[in-house]
Structures are given as C-alpha cells and as structure tokens.
Amino acid sequence: MSARAQLLALLRRSSLQRGDFVLSSGGRSDYYIDGRKTTMSGEGQALIGAVGLDLLAAAGWEPAAVGGLTLGADPVAYAIANAASRQGRRLDAFTVRKEPKGHGAGRQVEGPVRAGQEVVVVEDVLSTGTSALRAIEAIEAFGARVLGVLALVDRQMGGPEALAARGYRLVSACTAEELLAPEV
Fold it and tell me: Average pLDDT per run of 10 along the chain, which is 184 residues long?
C-alpha cells in the first residue's frame, strides 16, 4: 500500500468524525476532520513526511522551508522537514504566529527561514483558505516568496479557489470527497 493510501486510511480512522458540527466559518457540517489526531501521531508523522515530499516533487517545488499558521500547520511542516533530513536533503520548517510576539524580537515568523527564500505554506485541513492566506500574508511581509500551498486534506469549501484568486496553487494529499468515500 502506498504512503498516500496509508495516510488516507489513517485520516479516516483517526481524524474523521461524523455528527453535527459547527465549523469555524459558522456553517454546519455532518462531519469534522480533526487533523491533529493524525498529524501529531508517530505513524502520521512518518506518512506525512513521505507524502509531503512526494507532493512537493510532483508540484515541481523546491522550497528552502515549509510552514504555516500555528497550530495546524506545525506538525505537518516538522514531518516534511524531518523526512527531507532523513534523505540527506536540507529543508527547514517555520511557524507563523497568529499575532506578532509581544516581547523579545517581536517576530510573527519563527524558525530558520530567511527573507528572500522560497517557501511552501502547509495546512493540515484546508477549508476556505483563510488560514493559509493569513500565513502567506505574514511570510511575504517577512520577505520570503511563497511557491504555493500544500494541504493534507482539501475540504472542498472554496479554499483552492480563494488561493487561485490570489495567484497561489494548492496541492493536497486528498480531498474530503475521497476521505468520505467508502473504502475499497
């Protein structure tokens, strides 16, 4: 079974919940995807690293770093950076705080990323694209160049379209439709 198929199975088993949920947008849904249940597990980390590197290669992106808005993006970025390191490749991770730090250097972007570098913004679950766009805004203000966005799950709620309208491409490991489909 491929790493992508294993990741999809793990997301179904660990992160997909059925019921009645209020989403951050205020809308309602009969399912919820709690990406952290997968992204913060050891098994998830290994699979996310492998799948993330495959997605970067398929997109033709060679970023210096990957990261996004804390908290959902953090374990995704760390898994991909770790997988690259295990292959002898240099790929760093960064975190974008929701607000600039109120003390010390007052940074909003944390990690070894530098102005002028090319980066990819990552997400666990992309819905409307708001979190990814907030991360893009912060990282571009910092001085890095965003190649695109990588998500584990595209919830198919307008995120890819919102990103495309701003000139960014999305690659994802799977869609909500795939996640919700019965296993074969």
Answer: 97 96 84 97 98 98 98 97 98 94 80 97 96 97 98 97 98 97 78
* Among candidate residues 78, 76, 85, the one with its CA nearest the CA of residue 153: 76
CA 80 to centroid of chain Cα atoms:
10
Architecture of domain 3-180: 3-Layer(aba) Sandwich (3.40)
pLDDT of residue 182: 84
Extents of the domains making up the chain: 3-180
Locate 161 and state its tokens: 């379209």
Sorted by sequence, the CB contacts under 8 Å of residue 152 that are 6+ apart come out as 7, 11, 35, 38, 39, 48, 51, 76, 123, 124, 125, 172, 173, 174
Instruction: Report the predicted TM-score, pTM, of the whole model to 2 decimal places.
Output: 0.95
Distance of CA 132 to the CA centre of its chain: 8
List, in order, residues 6 or more apart from 123 with CB less than 8 Å away. 68, 69, 72, 73, 76, 131, 132, 149, 150, 151, 152
Question: What φ, ψ does residue 123 adopt, rounded to 5°?
Answer: -140, 150
SS3 20: strand
CA 57 to chain CA mean position, Å: 15
Place of tokens 């908290």: 71
